Amino acid sequence: MHMDAGTFARLAETHAARLVLYARQWANAPEDAVQDAFLKLARLSMPPDDPVAWLYRATRNAAIDAGKGQR
User: Fold this and answer.
1) Whole-structure pTM value
2) 41 neighbors 7 (Cβ within 8 angstroms)
3) Contact of 37 with 59, CB cutoff 8 Å
4) Contact partners, residue 66, CB within 8 Å, separation at least 6
């Protein structure tokens, strides 16, 4: 059961800017890390119990990975 489009849109509207700020501490292109996290969320067959926490973790992981590639 995928996340419905309305819920996904509300998550993006509410949290995308904060996630970009959060990702800045690890990556020079934090928007890419946030986009990667949202794409992964959209592809999940079952939405996580806490999608906001999941997005923060996925964003952090993507930003750290991107930061490693930039070094």
Assistant:
1) 0.91
2) no
3) yes
4) 26, 27, 28, 29, 32, 33
- What is the amino acid identity at position 31? E
pLDDT tens digits for range 8-57: 999 999 999 999 999 999 999 999 999 999 999 999 999 999 999 999 99
Q: 7: closest CA among 31, 45, 41?
A: 41
pLDDT(70) > 70: no
- Which residue, chain included where needed, has tokens 């990556």? 27
What token pair was written down for 7?
Answer: 């819920």
Token pair for 58: 């996925």
Q: Is 39 exposed, middle or buried (0-12, 13-18, 19+ CB in 10 A)?
A: exposed
pLDDT for res 2: 79
Q: Are 63 and 26 in contact (CB under 8 A)?
A: yes
